[in-house]
């Protein structure tokens, strides 16, 4: 994932910061507790496509 893209991307719901997790290929919004998948270096930023984080993921900040 391009670092310049990460600098400008924000959560589509709360406009908060996103954290990229390379191993899981996801952009994480801890504010909304959602994980947005990245496919072929393209972030899928639709709320209905996001995965809800588990309480363990939130508390551990994977």
TrEMBL record:
Belongs to the UPF0434 family. SUPFAM superfamilies: Trm112p-like. This is UPF0434 protein H8L32_12640. Pfam families: Trm112p. PANTHER family: PROTEIN PREY, MITOCHONDRIAL (PTHR33505:SF4), ZGC:162634 (PTHR33505). It comes from the Bacteria.
């Amino acid at each position: 994932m391009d670092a310049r893209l990460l600098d400008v991307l924000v959560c589509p719901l709360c406009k908060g910061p996103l954290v990229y997790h390379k191993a899981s290929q996801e952009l994480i919004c801890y504010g909304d507790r959602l994980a947005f998948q990245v496919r072929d270096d393209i972030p899928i930023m639709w709320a209905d496509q996001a995965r809800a984080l588990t309480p363990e993921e939130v508390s551990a900040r994977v």
